């Protein structure tokens, strides 16, 4: 980790800030709340924004970034912007068009990182999750390696500085890494990762291949009923984390984030509360002891908040493998 600018070097030589701001918007939250949160985040020091075609918010996030550039708060090169390829665009001939749509919405010339959102190709069309009359998800028989070749072309075209994947298991990562004629290996695998799902095996594997692990759902989750079982435990209420927060005179959220950072993981965080957004930056102001890291390791229960259950049964569903 580059301690001066709080960033790590990716395997293609580009840098990624270790703390990123997530831009998913739960159904109950109006978009203008996220716009305000993104503005506060830039003013607080966030330079890494994680978005996606799926989130339907790229126009608004792009607007925030451009207005902060116009105000002289940041330059474009200060901002690390991520977008993601959705499953209905996995066919090689559609990959670049999805990225171009994201760029057009955000009104940016390039993304810093473009990643395959899920290793799950879906039938092309207007619907985000296409289904038949019986409610079954309509899949598309696209080879992930063919999709990856189209991702490589996006990098060659200068539309994406770096390319990576998300929600891939080890087997799926190896398919890409062992692909004949591989030009660029993924710079990252973005996965759900937190104290209750610490991804230690995936982390070891990615580090052995010089692939950055980027963590989402780092604070548990927003408990959006579309994605999350409402009976799942609230991570930030865990008594061990709460006791540790008291010990370090920090919040539970900061302890949860610090745990991931000290393991060499790039973390994404999100809040719509101004005070909490500003507080995220305090994650760099303290350090957990080796003993406390081990205590937090012991909280792992392989609990996945975001199981993407509606893809269960898809031949590429990634979460049935151990990691």
TrEMBL record:
<dbReference type="InterPro" id="IPR036812">
    <property type="entry name" value="NAD(P)_OxRdtase_dom_sf"/>
</dbReference>
<keyword id="KW-0560">Oxidoreductase</keyword>
<dbReference type="Pfam" id="PF00248">
    <property type="entry name" value="Aldo_ket_red"/>
</dbReference>
<dbReference type="InterPro" id="IPR023210">
    <property type="entry name" value="NADP_OxRdtase_dom"/>
</dbReference>
<feature type="binding site">
    <location>
        <position position="117"/>
    </location>
    <ligand>
        <name>substrate</name>
    </ligand>
</feature>
<comment type="similarity">
    <text>Belongs to the aldo/keto reductase family.</text>
</comment>
<dbReference type="GO" id="GO:0047023">
    <property type="term" value="F:androsterone dehydrogenase [NAD(P)+] activity"/>
</dbReference>
<dbReference type="InterPro" id="IPR044482">
    <property type="entry name" value="AKR1C"/>
</dbReference>
<dbReference type="InterPro" id="IPR020471">
    <property type="entry name" value="AKR"/>
</dbReference>
<dbReference type="InterPro" id="IPR018170">
    <property type="entry name" value="Aldo/ket_reductase_CS"/>
</dbReference>
<protein>
    <submittedName>
        <fullName>3-alpha-hydroxysteroid dehydrogenase isoform X2</fullName>
    </submittedName>
</protein>
<feature type="site" description="Lowers pKa of active site Tyr">
    <location>
        <position position="84"/>
    </location>
</feature>
<feature type="active site" description="Proton donor">
    <location>
        <position position="55"/>
    </location>
</feature>
<feature type="domain" description="NADP-dependent oxidoreductase">
    <location>
        <begin position="19"/>
        <end position="300"/>
    </location>
</feature>
<keyword id="KW-0521">NADP</keyword>
């Amino acid at each position: 980790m580059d301690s001066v600018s709080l960033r790590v070097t990716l395997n293609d030589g580009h840098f990624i800030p270790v703390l990123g701001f997530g831009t998913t918007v739960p159904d109950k939250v109006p978009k203008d709340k996220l716009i305000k949160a993104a503005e506060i985040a830039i003013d607080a020091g966030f330079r890494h924004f994680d978005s996606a075609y799926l989130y339907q918010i790229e126009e608004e996030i792009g607007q925030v970034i451009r207005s902060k550039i116009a105000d002289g708060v940041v330059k474009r090169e200060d901002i690390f912007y991520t977008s993601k390829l959705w499953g209905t665009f996995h066919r090689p001939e559609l990959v670049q068009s999805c990225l171009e749509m994201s760029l057009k919405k955000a009104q940016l010339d390039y993304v810093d990182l473009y990643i395959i959102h899920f290793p799950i190709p879906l039938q092309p069309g207007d619907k985000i999750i296409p289904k038949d009359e019986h409610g079954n998800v309509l899949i598309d028989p696209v080879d992930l390696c063919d999709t990856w070749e189209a991702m490589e072309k996006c990098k060659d075209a200068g539309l994406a500085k770096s390319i990576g994947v998300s929600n891939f298991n080890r087997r799926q990562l190896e398919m890409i890494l062992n692909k004949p004629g591989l030009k660029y290996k993924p710079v990252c695998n973005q996965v759900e990762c937190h104290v209750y799902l610490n991804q230690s095996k995936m982390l070891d594997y990615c580090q052995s291949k010089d692939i950055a692990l980027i963590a989402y759902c780092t604070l548990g989750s927003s408990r959006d009923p579309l994605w999350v079982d409402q009976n799942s435990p609230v991570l930030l209420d865990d008594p061990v984390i709460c006791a540790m927060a008291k010990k370090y005179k920090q919040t539970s959220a900061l302890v949860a984030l610090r745990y991931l950072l000290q393991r060499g993981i790039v973390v994404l965080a999100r809040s719509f509360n101004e005070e909490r957004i500003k507080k995220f930056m305090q994650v760099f102001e303290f350090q957990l002891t080796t003993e406390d890291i081990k205590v937090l390791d012991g909280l792992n229960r392989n609990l996945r908040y975001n199981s993407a259950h509606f893809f269960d049964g898809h031949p590429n569903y990634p979460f049935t493998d151990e990691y």
